[in-house]
Specification:
By secondary structure, the protein is of the alpha/beta class. It is built from 13 helices and 13 strands. 40% of the residues lie in helices and 15% in strands. The longest helix is centred in the first third of the chain and has 19 residues.
């Protein structure tokens, strides 16, 4: 005889997760892991986006609802179309993944009297967030530095901030510099534009070349500055050592075959690719400061003091000449990811935030709205 099934509070939660093109580009793998984890815990997950490319996140029961931009003059009609698409299973929680999705998330939450979660993965998210009066909202921050910045702006009690680190896939052990006979490979996934530090990285590679270091560097980013950066590469005499290429399939596969991952600027946002590089046990080079707390100098990464060609070149060179150090950092990074950045912990903690909000509704005055 089958036992009667009694739904848990979490199994009745319907979540609508709002994403824009920018957060999809830099956080796609984390969003996918979050959705897959949540679907085993709560009743339903739907992604709301105006970015057509985000439809690739549709997976089994995770539905992606594509809406047209809500600006003037068709904003009201287009929002009503979005609301109608959600009406069969009204969301109980609306989760905004970035600053550019805050407004649409607020409108959806108000439409369905739902609770509202703001995800903070970048400094610009904090700058754009204005909580107004107290309401049914929570803030999830992806790192401790972001928690500190957020509570500095809003105050801990009012902002109700939770620290939930993003989850990533982890390798069993570091594979960087596995074959000493191979030419060392350097990987960079930064955008090909003026603010990403790629030009500084090219200058750093030129310094390494002058120091007689052998390497092959792959630039896998996108951006309108590629033509200019190719010209700089040629002018620096790096054409034989630097390759601009778009990998076939997931960048994660490219990481499995490379040695050093370089992020040549102070990171003011958290990228899934930086976390994936750590999780795959690459020897990671970045710059001190920024919003990451996964970088621990000498334990999980090699950190340059400044985003300068000289400092970045020195950090890379330390790994090129000391492969044992590189493997130590790679294994330390994997250990850090396994203890602080698991996919299951991310999904469970996020579902717990949703549940706590739903359970607290009865304590709020009638007519209370999320801001």
């Amino acid at each position: 005889m089958e036992e009667d099934y009694t739904p848990t509070p979490q199994s009745r939660i319907e979540a609508a997760i709002c994403i824009d093109a920018g957060v999809y580009s830099r956080y796609r793998a984390v969003i996918r892991h979050l959705c897959v984890g949540l679907i085993d815990i709560i009743a339903g997950v739907r992604l709301l986006t105006s970015a057509a490319e985000a439809r690739s996140l549709t997976l089994g029961p995770v539905q992606t609802i594509l809406y047209k931009p809500l600006g003037w003059p068709w904003g009201h009609r287009r929002f009503q179309e979005l609301a109608n698409a959600l009406a069969d299973k009204p969301p109980s929680v609306v989760h905004a993944m970035s600053a550019k999705s805050f407004k649409v998330a607020q409108k959806v939450a108000a439409q369905f009297d739902a609770d509202l979660v703001y995800e903070i993965t970048a400094l610009e998210d904090i700058d754009a967030l204005h909580l107004g009066r107290a309401g049914r909202h929570r803030i999830i921050c992806a790192s401790q530095p972001l928690v500190e910045k957020c509570t500095e702006k809003f105050g801990r009690s009012r902002a109700q901030v939770s620290l939930i680190r993003p989850g990533v896939v982890c390798a069993g052990e570091a594979t960087c510099f596995k074959d000493e006979k191979d030419t060392p490979t350097i990987l960079a996934t930064a955008d090909l534009d003026n603010s990403s530090g790629v030009e500084v990285l090219l200058q750093a590679l030129r310094l390494l070349q002058e120091r007689k270091q052998e390497f092959l560097a792959f630039f896998l980013g996108h951006g309108g500055g590629e033509t200019k950066l190719r010209a700089i590469t040629k002018s620096l005499g790096l054409s034989a050592s630097v390759v601009f290429a778009q990998p076939e399939g997931d960048v994660l596969k490219a990481m499995c075959g490379a040695d050093i991952f370089v992020q040549p600027t102070i990171e003011n946002s958290i990228s899934a690719r930086s976390l994936q590089a750590l999780g795959q046990g690459m020897a990671v080079v970045s710059v001190s400061g920024g919003v990451h707390d996964a970088y621990v100098h000498g334990e999980t990464a090699m950190l340059a003091k400044r985003p300068s060609a000289t400092d970045i070149a020195t950090a890379i060179e330390n790994l090129l000449v000391d492969h044992e150090l590189a493997r130590k950092l790679g294994n330390g990074a994997i250990a850090r990811m396994k203890s602080h950045h698991t996919m299951s912990a991310m999904a469970e903690a996020t579902a717990a935030v949703y549940q706590s909000m739903v359970e607290q509704r009865v304590a709020l005055p009638v007519g209370s709205q999320a801001d």
